């Protein structure tokens, strides 16, 4: 499985969590694509980005959560790269079957992202537009990875988070179809019936 990590952080040099994630991922057999560094003038090479998508099976979108949304260049990237007739619409099937994963850093604690918390909604609820983007383009939306409290985490916690992220995005069983097949195979091997 080939993994592409598109990093969308407007100030990665000052980042605590996202920078550590990137440095850890660069040690893995994954493609790291730092979008803000690659396109400082926001002139996205659509053909090059589409080519990268085609070469990979799992696409990870790594970004800090800003005002319950993505950084602005990520929105532009989605608008420019996921074109009609290529990613969706008539004959827009190039991404069908690929996997879509979010890796998000948020400043607030996990308990604030729920009904009754000061952010009122879960990360899953707040990322519905991205989930629908995956659906529209024929990609399989997989479980996201979130680092809460990113503005106050310790260096040790950041390092642990980077390890957990790496395991998360490279685990074939992140895909529920793969996970289910493993469970069913284990049941068959043990001759388990329900």
Automatic annotation (TrEMBL):
UniProt keyword Glycosyltransferase, yes or no: no
Keyword hit for Oxidoreductase: yes
Domain Flavodoxin-like fold: 1-164
Annotated keywords: Oxidoreductase
GO MF annotations, alphabetized: electron transfer activity; FMN binding; NAD(P)H dehydrogenase (quinone) activity
Signal sequence annotation: none
Pfam families per UniProt: Flavodoxin_2
SUPFAM superfamilies: Flavoproteins
Listed EC numbers: 1.6.99.-
Database matches in InterPro entries: Flavodoxin_fold, Flavoprotein-like_sf, KefG/KefF
PANTHER family per UniProt: GLUTATHIONE-REGULATED POTASSIUM-EFFLUX SYSTEM ANCILLARY PROTEIN KEFG
Protein name: General stress protein 14
Origin species: Priestia megaterium Q3
Classification lineage: Bacteria, Bacillati, Bacillota, Bacilli, Bacillales
């Amino acid at each position: 499985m080939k993994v592409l990590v598109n990093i969308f952080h407007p100030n990665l040099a000052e980042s605590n969590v996202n920078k550590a994630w990137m440095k850890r991922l660069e040690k893995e057999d994954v493609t790291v694509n730092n979008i803000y560094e690659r396109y400082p003038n926001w002139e996205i090479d659509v053909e090059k980005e589409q080519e990268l998508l085609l070469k990979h099976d799992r696409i990870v979108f790594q970004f800090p959560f800003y005002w319950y949304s993505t950084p602005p260049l990520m929105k532009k990237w989605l608008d420019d790269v996921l074109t009609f007739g290529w990613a969706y619409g008539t004959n827009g099937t190039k991404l069908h079957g690929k996997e879509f994963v979010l890796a998000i850093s948020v400043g607030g604690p996990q308990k604030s992202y729920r009904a009754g918390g000061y952010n009122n909604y879960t990360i899953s609820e707040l990322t519905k537009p991205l989930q629908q983007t995956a659906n529209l383009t024929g990609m399989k939306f997989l479980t996201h990875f979130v680092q809460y409290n990113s503005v106050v985490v310790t260096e040790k916690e950041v390092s642990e988070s980077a390890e957990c992220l790496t395991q998360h995005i490279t685990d074939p069983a992140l895909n529920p179809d793969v996970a289910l097949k493993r469970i069913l195979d284990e049941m068959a091997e043990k001759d388990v019936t329900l």
